[in-house]
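Exam prep: given the inputs below (a chain plus nickel (II) ion), describe the expected output before reading on.
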Amino acid sequence: MFHPILKMGDARLLRVAENVQVFDTPELHQLVADMFETMLAANGAGLAAPQIGVNLQLVIFGFKNNPRYPDAALVPETVLINPVVTPLSEETDEAWEGCLSVPGLRGLVPRWSAVRYEGFDQFGQRICRDVDGFHARVVQHECDHLNGVLYPMRIRDMAQFGFTEVLFPELEAEE
Ligand code: NI
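Solution:
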């Protein structure tokens, strides 16, 4: 079932999410299914449970071709629960991000260039991956949602924040 996506300004986006305690339950599987349906309907690259008002440490991400990010490489479809993200070096880079909770806007955001992420899937199976590029960026963006952080809070130069239709007129209309 599709869920409305909360928008920036909603206090529920600013909470620290709680750990998932029990895996492989019908409720958890239903939540994951609902999140994929919601993300796909919105053409998102990722979605965090707090964005639909569920205050749990659960994010999903992944896509093959995404009209909102036409130049991004494939990221495997992933369910990541109770994640821990660790940078693999001091290196950072900046790239443009958007967020389904901040519709119509993009900002230039610094992120760790390469990270390890660890956690569990919805069945309780351990996940541990070392990633870089857009994959690393998406993970950091989604996991920020679990700590009440939205990407505009990380923009260094607010001159690099604006409307998608102005910054990237070649992208398909969205939102
Ligand atoms: Ni987001």
